[in-house]
Amino acid sequence: MSISSRFQNPPEQNTKLSFKARSFLPLKHNSLLKIETGVVRIITWHEDGTLVTLGIWGPGDIVGQAFSKLEPYQIECLTKVEVTIVPLEGWFPFTDVMLAHIQQAEELMIIRSHKTVEVMLIKLLGWLVKKFGREVKSGHLIDLRLTHQDIADMLNSTRVTITRVLTQLEEQGLIHRLPLHRIVLKEEELWHYEI
Fold first, then answer.
1. CATH architecture, range 3-94
2. In angstroms, rounded to a whole number, what is the distance separating the alpha carbons of residues 67 and 96?
3. Which of 43, 39, 41, 42 is nearest to 81 (CA)?
4. pTM of the prediction?
5. Do 3-94 and 114-190 share a fold?
6. What does the pLDDT look like over 9-68, one tens digit per residue?
7. Any residues with CB less than 8 A from the CB of 130 and at least 6 apart, and which?
8. Which CATH number fits domain 114-190: 1.10.10.10, 1.20.1560.10, 3.90.550.10, 3.40.50.620?
9. Distance (Å, rounded) from C-alpha 107 to C-alpha 116?
10. CA distance readout (Å), 42 to 51, 55, 156
């Protein structure tokens, strides 16, 4: 069951806000934001300025600073985004939302724990297919504009390394890159890939 099917908007909740790609959602301590359309990523960074992606969220997910004690903490729109303001108290099962955040954090932690960037990238692409993918003739399309730098931030790598590994994966026939930073994952080829 998806998060979106578990949460119903209460009658008084109808304030929708729209944001452009690469803008930041406002952070309020007394409310959360339900993503109606689009995709966001939650980020922080180290003292040296290294960006760290904490999660990627899409339609039906609920995000907000109330879930974290990290500073700095920002929610960046990866696409055009429309959100609904959700009061912290009152209407939804907070436990379910917290579990969803914990589960995503664990999934990303496992992906990042692999020894090589190549394996991390393959695992990340598979995870993105499950969360944001759709089936197309040649495989599964991750219909999300992620730059090589976005992917590097998620895996604590460099843009140059991600570009090199994506090129290798494409040469091996595991992925096909499309315009606008979109990727088709050829899952049938991954079954034969030795990790």
1. Sandwich (2.60)
2. 12
3. 39
4. 0.76
5. no
6. 443 456 899 999 999 999 887 788 999 999 999 999 888 888 889 899 999 999 988 888
7. none
8. 1.10.10.10
9. 17
10. 10, 5, 14
Strands 139-142 and 74-77: unpaired
Selection from 84, 174, 74, 60 nearest residue 124 by Cα: 174
Do 184 and 174 form a contact (C-beta atoms < 8 A)?
no
Taking the C-alpha atoms of 62, 141, 120 and 46 in order, what is their torsion angle to the nearest 10 degrees? -40
- pLDDT tens digits, 132-186: 999 999 899 998 889 999 999 999 999 999 999 999 999 999 999 888 888 999 8
Give dist(CA 37, CA 60) in Å, integer.
Answer: 8
